[in-house]
Amino acid sequence: MKVCLDCRQDKPLQEFPRASRRKDGRGSYCRECMRARSKASYRVRQGKAGKVVREPVLVPEGYKWCRDCEQAKPLEDFCRNRNEPRGRAQYCKVCHNARSRETRERLYGGGREYHLQRRYGIGQVDVDRMLAAQDGKCAVCGKADPEHVDHDHKTGTVRGLLCFNCNQALGNVRDSLRVLRGLIAYLDPEADRPSGIEGRLSVLVRAAKPLPDMAWAKPRTA
User: Quick one: DSSP state of residue 76?
Assistant: First the structure.
């Protein structure tokens, strides 16, 4: 047993942190008092640095305090985060999304620019150049005002702008020329080709017209 110098209570040695320089191998203060001392010291240091220390807020079991909206909400309202002690983010999902939107707007000028740079390594200026090079039309079907950036899923290289249907079609067949040739043969039974499966696969797909100056197309780095 040992007496804590702070609370003056007689407690088992296990209640005291280890201290190799002490004769009994234990510190002078129990663990509970040591935690209180550490918190007090932290507040003093932060105060000298001009920072404000938030006091912990007591919330019911299964709830968490959001620092932004200052409300106690169920744990399900917080995103998972393994780096946090309780496995949940510091801010509720509503506040987290608001912070994300503000960050994208401040750093990238909007969600569209953020998406283009992160996903394809290009910006809206590059998309406008692509659209002008394609005469404002889809690179496959020629529909006006294509909005979807098409890229090679293996290399990450941007290939052009497609409408929703053409972009979806390429995604459905996973850019497979074999499947596309089979579809053309299926839709055009009168096409000139040898008989059998090899004949159905021998129908060539019309390639999109190459765009000039493709130096802006950057493969993904990660």
Answer: G
Phi, psi of 49 (to 5 degrees): -85, 0
Confidence at residue 208, expressed as pLDDT on a 0 to 100 scale: 38
3-state secondary structure of 154: coil
HSE of 67, CA atoms in CB hemisphere, 13 A: 10
Domain boundaries, the chain: 2-48, 63-108, 123-200
d(CA 3, CA 216): 72
Six token digits for residue 67: 């620092």
User: What's the gap between Cα 21 and its chain centre?
Assistant: 48
> Two tokens at 106?
């401040």
How many angstroms separate the CA atoms of 126 and 130, rounded?
A: 6
SS percent in the chain: helix, strand, coil, step 5? 40, 15, 45
Convert the pLDDT of each residue in 13-58 to its tens digit. 999 999 999 888 999 999 999 999 999 999 999 999 998 888 888 9
Q: Report d(CA 41, CA 44) in Å as an integer.
A: 5
CATH topology of domain 123-200: His-Me finger endonuclease fold (3.40.1800)
Give me 96's structure tokens: 């987290």
Q: What is the pLDDT of residues 80-130, one digit of tens each?
A: 999 988 899 999 999 999 999 999 999 998 889 999 999 999 999 999 999
